[in-house]
Amino acid sequence: MMKLRSTLISLLAVLALFAAACGDDDNDTATEAESTSASQSTSAPTDDADHDHKADEDHDHESEDAMADDDAAPARPERIVSIDPSGTEIIYAIGAGDRVVAVDDYSYFPEGTPVTDLSGWQPNLEAILAFEPDLVVMGSNSDIEASLEAAGVAVALSNAPMSFDDVYSQIEIVGAATGNIGEAAELVLEMQTEIDELTANAPDGSGLSYFHELDNTLYSVTSSTFIGAVYALFGLENAADPADADGAAFGYPQLSDEYIVDADPDIIFLADTICCGQSAETVAERAGWDQLSAVQNGTVIELNDDIVSRWGPRLVDFIEAIALAIESATVPA
Question: Which CATH number fits domain 1-27+52-201: 3.40.50.970, 3.50.50.60, 3.40.50.1980, 3.30.300.30?
Answer without folding.
Answer: 3.40.50.1980
